[in-house]
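User:
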Amino acid sequence: MLPSLFYKLIRKVGPCLVLIVVLSTESCAEKHGTYFEFFSNPLNDRVSIDYELSSYNEDQKKFVTSTYSKNIDPKRTALVIIDLWPPKFLDSLTIKYINPLIKEVDSLGMKIIYSPSSGPLNRHLEILDDGIFFFNQDMMDKYLLDNNIENLIYVGYDTLYCVLDKPNGIFSYLARNGHEIEMFALDIGLLSSTAEMKTMAIELLKKNRIGFIKNCKIKAPKNFPENTLTDVMAKVQNETKSGSHFAIIFKKDTISQEFNEFKQKLVENNIDYAEVVENKMIYHGQMIPPHKFIRVLRSGQFGNIYYAGYHINNEILWSDFGLITLYIKLRYNKVPLPRLYVLNDLSFAVASDGISPEMEKSTIINHYHGLNNIMSSTLLEETEKQTDSSQTGPSTESTTNN
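Assistant: Predicted structure:
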């Protein structure tokens, strides 16, 4: 029935409108492919994929997910495989999901990019003769440009870590090149240490224009090797470390009043701070561009950085001045940086469809790599003690002993 209807519509309204009608009448069962699902395009070699993005809904006060469609050229698309390591818990992901996916997208003409940042790959991983390798910190930018790649589809481990911050990861590539290439993350090819880490990372991607591709024929892998610490206070520390302190406060807008009292306390205790509004940093009344951010941190010789504000599950992580940016500088550019903290009681999460803000905050505070957390009262009290001690000077007993 569909073919005859198709030809009748062509004669009456032309091919462009027919394409819209045909695509809108197809269901999940009518998608081609098993691991990479798509609708074929009757007019050319492109295929249509469905993906999700999130946008903030002011009425609902949360990020709401919507589904979109895009026509892509498989020959100008690459599957990027990030860090499939040897541990046995990755065997199932590799054998049951990644390997058949590789074969399927290769048959469509997509490029296969293997990007192991270090160490051996999983011994079960399908390696194609014409696959492209980028080892260690080798970057794929020139290859993508030379081969006119328009779309990248990411799979690998860990969704919250390597898939984002490795040299060819999503965040790292965007930091160097911007959104010149469309990026997607494929659900069935992703795994994290815990279920909530994967869900939280997916929500973060969708908020930041990275299309999330679900599979309606195959359930995503669920062999997570660890459990999430759900108590937001599980790792809170009760003292500060040595060294000077620097606070970075992410504000919702320029007239936000939430942190006025806290900022006053920072001033009283000689704690330096900067404010970030709409991805613009203000420090000592001056606008600090992203490329000077690290210079500010190093010139101040700070021992500890404290993040606070809106939102720990978006801007505090994903921004020019956020935690992912600093981790990349520290881990891959070998830039010596202060210890990283979140002020537990002054960091807030925004709601989204896929996971509660409380769970997102707990997941980040307890599981984001190298991150410490402390209460704002502890920071202020410890600083006051240090200030009082320095003003009082050594006791008589200390002087005698010396």
